[in-house]
Amino acid sequence: MGVTIQLGQPGYYGPVNPNGIGLNQLLYPQPVMIQPGYGTWGRGRTVQPIYLRVPPGQAKNWGKHCQRYGACNRPVYFVQDSWYNDTYGKRYRQQQPYYNKGGRGKRDDD
């Protein structure tokens, strides 16, 4: 039986919404891109960057791990664990009603 970890929980790794994030909350000030030739799709259509939280060490060896996140061909900003845990995760959990009712991630309508 597998364990599902959702956005906002401490062990979550994956995309996050960048609202309110500043450069001081990123691992690197510039996005990382493994396959730079894919920076645009079609005529002048730019690929939007994504913001990811990844386990320690994966950002340094991004070429080895980008496929797991489907992000080898797009610019990626990595968020710091401290920002995710102390700011983003806390705010996300406060805004989700099923976290506030002590349901351990289970919604009332499930």
Entry summary:
It contains 3 helices and 5 strands, in the order ββββαβαα. The protein is of the alpha+beta class and 110 residues long. The strands form 2 sheets. The protein has a 3-stranded mixed beta sheet, with no helix packed on it.
Give the helix level as a range of percent: 10-25%
**Mean pLDDT over the residues:** 79
Name the strands of the widest sheet in spatial order.
1-4-5
Strand proportion, as a percent range, falls in: 5-15%
Write down the secondary-structure element order.
EEEEHEHH
What sort of overall outline do the alpha carbons produce when their principal axes are compared? globular
Question: Terminal Cα separation, in Å?
Answer: 19 Å
Total number of beta strands: 5
Largest sheet: 3 strands, mixed
How many H/I helical runs? 3
**Radius of gyration, taken over Cα atoms and rounded to an integer in Å:** 16 Å
Uncertain ranges = 103-110
- Strand pairing plus helix content: what structural class? alpha+beta
Describe how the helices and strands are arranged.
Layout: E1 14-15, E2 40-41, E3 45-46, E4 50-53, H1 62-65, E5 76-78, H2 81-95, H3 97-100
Primary descriptors:
alpha+beta, 110 residues, 3 helices, two-stranded antiparallel ribbon, 12% strand, globular, 5 strands, 3-stranded mixed beta sheet
Description:
- By secondary structure, this protein is an alpha+beta fold.
- It has 3 helices and 5 strands.
- The strands form 2 sheets. A 3-stranded mixed beta sheet has the order 1-4-5, with no helix packed on it.
- Helix 1 (62-65) links the parallel strand 4 and strand 5 (76-78).
- It is globular.
- It starts with 13 loop residues before the first strand and ends in a 10-residue tail after the last helix.
